[in-house]
Amino acid sequence: MPSSNLPRKPLSYTTCTDERELLTNVWATIAKYQQYVSYNGKGFDYPFLLFRSLVHKVTIAKGLESTRHLDLAKLLRPNNSQYKLSAICEALGIDDPKSHGVSGLYVSQLYRQNKYQEIVDYVARDVISTTALYQALAHAAPLLLVSLK
Description:
Structural class: mainly alpha
Largest sheet: 2 strands, parallel
Number of helices: 7
Shape: globular
Helix content: 40-55%
Order of helices and strands: HEHEHHHHH
Radius of gyration: 16 Å
Number of strands: 2
């Protein structure tokens, strides 16, 4: 399912004055939701946010590492196999978030170059692709997703 066909609300973002404010906003946003879906969020995003929050002494939202967090990579990459989100998207006909020349590897470089909009655009594509993957799994194997919660 191409992600361009997905019904969705417009994505938005808030600018922050520093990393501490950004992390505070991230945890406050997380606290508002009952479930989180990611791709490799438990392998990268959560540990990264946790470490950076510890550095800045930011209070961490409770429950992200619990059953509230559904990491699709844990389902599709048993034993930490090397199935990247972009490869899975390609196989399923979902728009690859990295197809526009930006990947997570370049985010710090883009940040240092003050190319914030490119970062926002990459993250938005990643969110849309992860949503499309979740919807494909929900359609093909709804009971499997329920058992992972």
